């Protein structure tokens, strides 16, 4: 069915036709692949916009050729990302492997500062398929799977795993679970091992990922204080699988921190994963390692600026279903579909109308030249499917999100609790060494 047919369906009066039933005729199983280019921000910073655009165009063009050689089609490029669709789910994985091999070979002759990498996520399921586009949950899940991957890594969903595992064509390993709409809807995640030496790129265990427990080994966590006053940092070893942080009450105390409550936050270890949970209405922030899927009401700290994220989820679902642009939907509603509102007294609004916006001191969509704690290019927000993601773009001081509930923490994350900065240190211990 052509684009005009779909548009005609969407524009018919509700009384004439059940649009949902008509659109269901376009729904079928398909495999959706997302790539995301890592290292492009620093490349732009170092070599300039013209060279950066040429690099992205060359890379995406080569990835597009690989897609086509495996029977797929490029649906769209979104900045430095590619969305592609495949009727043959196994060929989607084969294409992803060839993409990673191409990037690796292309990097071999380049100096370190010119190398880039990609992360890839693939999902299989029902989608609303037009002649040149795909909509629906198959796209949303593919985007979330990609956002969970590390650079040089290929991750696939459980539905795709179920389709290809029996063939034995690919080396696949479980890498944990990730959340869709909430904790009750976690899905298994698998890695495609494409390197000949079998070395994994490793999962970025940010707040969407709960790793697979490794019962053959134990892990040890500790917190390392980050100080800028020249004094030696304190280290805090976990005395149990549940510890509290507070001013004067708790396992880790900071009596000289006037902004800290008692107790302020709880840290727990479950199946080798560390979680943070704010207590007594206190605030606990963690910095981003990899993309973070934003939800309505999330509090984000960029430099010394703090924002609250607002999104019209119903409008976002409409845009995802119909293929309408965010600007178009916002114009119809006379309000932005998604925006950030400053928590400062002026409550200034920062909309994300074009599907992407950047924050920085001097080089961004929204600039804060007077904020010395903000990097020139600090963070970006982008839209895919029914989701908005925020990602740090290599800033000096990091981008932080407030934990509203019990939240898993990635290895190497930094906790911002009251006036303290505490780095998460994770050590793997062999089972016999831990006894």
Summarize this, please?
This protein is an alpha+beta fold and 435 residues long. Helix content is 24%, strand content 36%. It has ten helices and 29 strands.
Structure description:
It is globular, with a radius of gyration of 23 Å. Helix 3 (40-47) packs antiparallel against helix 4 and helix 4 (49-69) crosses helix 5 (89-108). It has helices at 3-11, 19-24, 40-47, 49-69, 89-108, 137-148, 158-164, 313-322, 326-333, 431-434; strands at residues 27-38, 73-78, 81-86, 117-129, 134-135, 154-157, 172-179, 186-192, 209-210, 217-225, 235-237, 242-246, 252-253, 265-270, 273-278, 284-287, 292-293, 299-302, 305-311, 338-342, 349-351, 356-360, 366-367, 379-384, 387-392, 399-402, 407-408, 414-417, 420-430. It contains ten helices and 29 strands. The relative contact order is 0.11. It folds into three domains: 3-203, Alpha-Beta Plaits; 217-286 and 402-434, Tumour Suppressor Smad4, CATH 2.60.200.20; 289-397, Tumour Suppressor Smad4 (Sandwich), CATH 2.60.200. The chain is α+β, with helices and mostly antiparallel strands and 435 residues long. Strand 28 and strand 29 form a beta hairpin.
Provide tags for this entry.
435 residues; Alpha-Beta Plaits; Tumour Suppressor Smad4; nine-stranded mixed beta sheet; disordered N terminus
Oligomer: single chain
**Hey, roughly how much beta strand do the residues contain?**
35-45%
What's the total count of β strands?
29
Our count of domains comes out at 3
Unreliable stretches (pLDDT < 50, length at least 5) are 1-7, 13-17
- Rough outline: globular
Q: What's the CATH topology label of the largest domain? A: Alpha-Beta Plaits
Beginning-to-end CA distance, first to last residue = 64 Å
Major sheet characteristics: 10 strands, antiparallel
């Amino acid at each position: 069915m052509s684009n005009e047919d779909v548009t005609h369906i969407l524009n018919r009066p509700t009384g004439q036709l059940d649009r949902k039933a008509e659109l269901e005729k376009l729904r079928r199983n398909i495999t959706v692949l997302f790539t995301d280019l890592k290292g492009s921000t620093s490349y732009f910073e170092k070599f300039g916009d013209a060279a950066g655009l040429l690099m992205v165009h060359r890379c995406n063009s080569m990835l597009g050729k690989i897609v086509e050689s495996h029977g797929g089609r490029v649906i769209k490029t979104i900045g430095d990302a590619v969305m592609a669709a495949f009727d043959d789910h196994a060929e989607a994985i084969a294409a992803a492997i060839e993409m990673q091999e191409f990037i690796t070979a292309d990097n071999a002759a380049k100096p370190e500062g010119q190398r880039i990498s990609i992360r890839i996520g693939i999902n299989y399921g029902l989608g609303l398929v037009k002649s040149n586009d795909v909509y629906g949950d198959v796209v949303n899940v593919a985007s979330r799977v990609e956002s969970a991957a590390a650079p040089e890594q290929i991750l696939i969903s459980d539905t795709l795993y179920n389709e290809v595992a029996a063939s034995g064509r690919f080396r696949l390993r479980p890498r944990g679970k990730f959340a869709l709409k909430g904790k009750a809807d976690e899905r298994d995640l698998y890695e495609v091992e494409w390197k000949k030496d079998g070395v994994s790129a490793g999962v970025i265990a940010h707040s969407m990922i709960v790793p697979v427990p490794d019962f053959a080994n134990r892990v040890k966590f500790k917190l390392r204080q980050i100080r800028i006053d020249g004094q030696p940092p304190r280290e805090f070893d976990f005395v149990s699988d549940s510890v509290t942080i507070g001013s004067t009450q708790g396992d880790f105390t900071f009596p000289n921190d006037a902004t800290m409550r008692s107790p302020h936050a709880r840290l727990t270890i479950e199946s080798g994963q560390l979680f943070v949970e704010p207590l007594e209405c206190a605030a606990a922030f963690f910095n981003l390692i990899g993309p973070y899927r934003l939800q309505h009401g999330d509090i984000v700290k960029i430099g010394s600026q703090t924002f609250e994220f607002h999104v019209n989820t119903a409008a976002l679902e409409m845009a995802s279903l119909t293929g309408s642009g965010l600007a178009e939907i916002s114009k119809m509603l006379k309000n932005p579909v998604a925006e950030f509102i400053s928590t400062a007294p002026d409550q200034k609004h920062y909309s994300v109308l074009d599907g992407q916006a950047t924050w920085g001191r001097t080089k961004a969509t929204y600039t804060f030249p007077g904020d010395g704690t903000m990097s020139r290019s600090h963070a970006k927000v982008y839209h895919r499917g029914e989701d908005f993601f925020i990602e740090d773009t290599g800033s000096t001081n990091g981008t932080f999100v407030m934990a509203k509930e019990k939240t898993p923490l990635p290895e190497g994350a930094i906790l911002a609790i009251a006036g303290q900065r505490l780095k998460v240190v994770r050590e793997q211990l062999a089972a016999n060494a831990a006894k």
